[in-house]
Write a structure and sequence with these properties.
Lambda_DNA-bd_dom_sf, 434 Repressor (Amino-terminal Domain), seven-stranded mixed beta sheet, alpha/beta, Endonuclease, Chain A, 291 residues, elongated, single chain, disordered N terminus
């Protein structure tokens, strides 16, 4: 999944401060406080709290203040600083990586939970083929008809529920996928060779419409698979990364691994051949290929 450049180094003070800012923002949002209310609750001056939360700030509160924050919010100091993945004060920390097998209903609830917990952060997604939010039912049935995957059905259901709530007022979604996926779909090549042309056209038209309607909250980047590679995964803000394995999820909690996967996503975006403002135009070009 990663190149040699993606290998992570031990966290330095800047990384710790960044993790602290991200987790403080999550806690403040979760409690529904503004900065004044939160600073009063933890016994710190509002201006001091603002300085700790400024972008690029490297200063951290004193140990006493960190303890007060942890005690008030029911988390551990280690979690605030990114040392462990679990929020609680118990010793049974969440492992850095875990696998999760679920029924369809369980997967639906878990997906909804992950989306809720990522409110206010970016959700960044590299799909295996067509992005869930943009896939029509006919393509989903064609692609997965020979698989008994309850989790896949839950993903499709979650996608439909998200579409019903669009536009997304609190969550930005970035999707990065290969140009070749759409090219092969338009031409009926590869895995799409047995899919009827009218369905392939309907899929592209559906994608074009949604990409236009949801921009800029939903941003689609297209990269050249000849020059870049990525396995599919989803980043739910800085909290977790999810790798879909067909009948289970591989869940990454480690701050360092999530940061490395975020950097990998950033490199894909930087090298993208088509940016979100031109995505609908590119899909239209593939539609013309089908004429």
């Amino acid at each position: 999944m990663f190149s040699q450049q993606d290998e992570f180094q031990p966290a330095d003070k800047r990384d710790i401060a960044q993790t602290f800012r991200e987790r403080m923002a999550l806690l403040i949002s979760r409690h529904g406080f503004n900065l004044s209310q939160f600073s009063q609750a933890i016994g710190i001056d509002r201006s001091a709290l603002s300085q700790f939360l400024m972008p690029e700030a490297t200063r951290l509160p004193r140990a006493e203040t960190l303890f007060n924050i942890a005690k008030f919010c029911g988390v551990s100091v280690d979690w605030l600083l990114g040392v462990v993945a679990t929020e609680g004060e118990r010793d049974d920390s969440i492992p850095s990586v875990e696998t999760l097998r679920m029924s369809g209903d369980e997967a639906q609830r878990k997906l909804a939970q992950w989306h809720r917990e990522a409110l206010g952060y970016k959700i960044r997604y590299i799909p295996s083929t067509i992005p869930d939010l943009l896939r029509i039912p006919e393509v989903s049935e064609y692609e997965f008809k020979d698989h008994n995957l309850e989790i896949r059905e839950a993903q499709d259901k979650q996608a439909r529920e998200l579409l019903d709530k669009t536009p997304f007022p609190e969550t930005d979604i970035e999707v990065c996928m290969p140009l070749q996926t759409l090219e092969h779909l338009a031409k009926g090549e590869g895995i799409w060779s047995d899919l009827a042309a009218p369905i392939r056209r309907k899929q592209l038209e559906h994608m074009r419409a949604l990409v236009e309607a949801f921009y800029p909250t939903y941003r689609l980047f297209l990269y050249d698979q000849h020059t870049a590679f990525s396995a599919p995964y989803t980043l739910f803000g800085p909290q977790r990364a999810i790798i879909y394995l067909g009948n289970m999820y591989l869940i990454v909690h480690s701050v360092e691994h999530i940061r490395a996967m975020t950097q990998h996503f950033d490199r894909l975006i930087k090298g993208a051949e088509v940016t979100p403002d031109r995505a609908a135009e590119q899909i239209e070009a593939y539609l013309r290929v089908m004429e």
